[in-house]
Every structure is written in C-alpha cells, then in structure tokens.
Task: structure prediction
Amino acid sequence: MRQLRRVLLVEDDPDVRAVTDFALRSVGGFCVEVCASAQEALERAEAFAPDLILLDVMMAGIDGPAALLALREIPALVRTPVVFVTAKIQPQETARYKAMGSLGVIGKPFDPTTLTETLHEMWQQQGS
Amino acid sequence: MKAQLRDLALEYSAALSEYIAKGSEAALLQAYQAGRTALAEGVGMLDLATIHQESLVAALLERLAPEASQVIVQRASQFFAESLVAFEMTHRGLKEATATLRDSNRELQHQVRSVLEEQSATRHQLEEQRRLERLKDEFISIVSHELRTPLTSIHGSLGLVSSGRAGELPPKVSHLVEIAYRNSQRLVRLAGDLLDLQRIESGSLAFELRSHELAGLLQAALEANQPYGNRFEVAFVPGPIPPGVHVRADADRLMQVLTNLLSNAAKFSPPQAEVTLDAERRGPEVRVRVSDHGPGIPEEFRQRIFQRFAQADSSSTRQREGTGLGLSISKAIVERMGGRIGFETQEGVGTTFFVDLPVAEAEPRAEEG
Result:
C-alpha cells in the first residue's frame, strides 16, 4: 500500500489549524497544505493532490459534509480518503459521517501527539 | 297531555336522582330539559283549562235559571280556587325546580371552569418545566461543544510542548507546562462528562441493551482497570461471582460504571490495599459490588454523593483528578438500564458501592450480529 504523506488540512479556527498543522508536520512528518475554509480547499485540493484530507465539520460557509460532496465532484479526488474532525461527537452523527463515505471521524479535542498514529491506523484500515 | 306530563315528571325525577347519585352532567341536563318542558306544558294546560272552564260556566249561566246560578257561580269559583291552589303549587314547584336546576347548573359550570383552569395551569407549569429542561440541555450541549474548539488548541499546544516536540524546556518551565497540561486534560474530561451526562439524562444517547454474561464483563473490567489501580498501589481482586448469570445491559456503558466505581475505590484506598469486585444473585436481580478499605463516606456527604459536582472535600488532591460527575453519570446509566445504584459505608472501615441489575435470559448465539 502507498505511504501516507500528503495531507490537506481544512480547518477554519486559526489556533486549532496552527496546532494541527504543527502536529502533522513535526510529529507526523507529513507534507501539509493548509486551508482556512472549504472554498479554499476546493480551489487548491486538485493541485496539491493529497493522499488524505482532514476536514473540520463545523465551518462557516460551506461546512465539512457539504465540502466532502463538493470535493467528490472533482474527478481527481473521487477516491481520496477524507477524515472528519468534529466537536460534535454524538454516536448518531459519527454514523452519519461514516455513511457519507468518510474514512473516519476524530473528536475534538484530540491529542495532537497521537493524531499521526490515528491517521496511520485509519490509512491502514481502508479497503480492509 | 296528562300522561305526557307524568312521563316528564318521572323523567325529571329519575334524571335528578341519577345526577345526585352519580354527578353525571348529562343527567342534570336531562332533568333540566324535562323540567322545563313540563313547566311549559303545565302552564299551557292550565291556561287551556281556565279558558274552557270559563266558557263552560258562561254557557251554563246563560241556560240555567237565575236562582240556580248563584250555586253554580259559588261552585265554579270554589273549583277555580281549588284549581288555582293546585296550579300555584305546581307552578311554584316547577319554579323551584327550575331555580334549583339553574343553581346546580351554575355550580356545575363553575366546577367545570375551575377544573379546566386548574388543568391549564398544570399544563402551563409542565410546559414551562419542559422548556427549562430543554434550555438546560441546549445550554450544556452548546457549552460543551463551544468549549471543545478552544480546548483543542490549548490542550493540543500544551501536549506538543510538554512532549518536547517544540523543543527542550528548562525544568521550571516544564513543571508549569505540566501543570497546565494536566488541568487542560481535566477540562477536556469535564466537557466530555458534562455532555455525556446531559445525553444520558435527556435520553438522546441510544442504549444498546443486550444480554451479556456477567462474569465475563466483570473480569474484563478488572483487567482494563488494573493499570489505573497500580497508580495507587491498589489490587483489584475478584470475589465470588455466580457463573452463568446474564444481565440485560449496554456493555460499554456498564463498563463505564464499573470503571468509575473501581477508580473511585482505588483513589480512596490506602496503598497496598485490595478492592474486591464480586456479585450475588438476589431473586430476579443480581447485585454487583465494589468494596474498598478506604476511610468511608462522611455522614454529612452521604445524601449528596450522587449529585453533580458533589465532592466531600475539594482540597483533596486525589479528587482534583475527577470531574465530580462520575457518580451522577453512573447513576443515570444504571437507571437507564432498569437498575439501581447505592452504597454501604462505615467510617474508618470502608465502602461498598453496589449496582443491582435485572437478570436476563442468555441470548441465543444465532441472534448476534
């Protein structure tokens, strides 16, 4: 299986974005592209060609689930795994996000020191 | 006509007795209507009779000899006087009956109105109570969601800094960061517990109730929690557990309760002490017990122990780790599973928390999936 290297991070809260970005780069050693909104992600995702997209659920404007649907319209991103990050971790919500075709759901607040491990685990599980 | 009037009178008295006996509103209405019809009929009849009698007497007077007329006039007026008495009596009786009916009707209306008013007041109260309950749920839900975003960056930053990922820290700084990190962890737990409690109490959290073998669950709880016990040098040991007993429960949630009770027991045990987990069949229920050799629960605290943020002594360090919501959550979970939670305690000797759960049939394997 291909290695997980390129992560597109979509998060509208600047502080959470900075911490997550730091964790992905310095702990995970990933190549990270950071977007402050779903709109930005839609503009830059194809060019960046991510292995995985980390998508915040509650964002102003286009929210996470809507962004996922829009990203799937881009032919190059039809199969790119998406992991939602959300403060709303109701079991039924989680089930809904999974049903939308996301690879997984990470609840806020998450531990940035183990975020990399969690993403690698999800990456390994896909297709199995 | 006469027969009809009697029928009405009978109907009237029958309906009235029924109202008096049973308080039926329909009977009262029936009596009232019968009475009114009878009154109208009676007055009409008497009027008619008077006209008839008067014309009869006039005709007779014309025909008869003048000497006889005196007697006839006398008899006629006597007859009229007697008729009048009867008429008066009937009339008065009917008037009284009407008045009585009107009074009781009014009384009834009054009663109905006050009952309706009471009902609507109660409904308003209930609605208000529900509204406040909903407001509280929304508030807790919003607060814990809104807390999560800033907590993610605080907790995340501190986690990265204290793990050394952002560079080595001087010992003094490291110590302070450690304190901040530990407390941010506590805030995270608090936000989670608050949301958990709200979801369980409001019923928005679905419970997956299935039949589980108790001994297996208890063994798993012991194993999963022993690392926590080690931090306090406390050993979790199994006591007698009846084999083959099944309980109807949500396994994850029951595990949450057992974890809470075991970790509380560890926190309040002296080092090298044992905490026993055992179970006992009690008729249709099974009692699961977590017993420690801690200091016991102070008398004045026993009443409040299952309340939110209830902690006997907030200055104690071992309690600062907790959120003060563990037992409230455990109680809510146990009650949602149709069980009961309680404790027995003796100061200086120890405390036993127990959970009573309904015993269930073993679930056939084939149904699983």
